Amino acid sequence: MLQVLQIVRDNPTGSQFLMSSSTIPNLNAFRRGQRGRGRGSGRGVGSSHSGAAGLGHGRHRPHDEIIQNTDNDAATSRLSAVEAGYLEDPFARLLSADEDGPVARRLPLMNRGTYLRTASIDRIVDTFLSSTGHGCRQIISLGAGSDTRYFRLKHKRQNLAIVYHEVDFEANTRRKIGRLRSPPFADKAKTLAGVDMHASDVRLSEDGSTLRSSEYNIHPQDLRRLPRDNADLTGVDKDLPTLIISECCLVYLPPEDADAVLRYFSQLFPSTTPLAIVVYEPIRPHDSFGRTMVRNLMSRGIQLQTLEKYAGLAEQQERLKTYGFRGDDGTGSGAEAVDINFIWQRWTPPEEKERVDGLEWMDELEEFVLLAKHYCICWGWRGYGEGSGWKELPSSSPN
Question: What is a biological process (GO) this protein takes part in (predicted)?
Answer without folding.
Answer: methylation
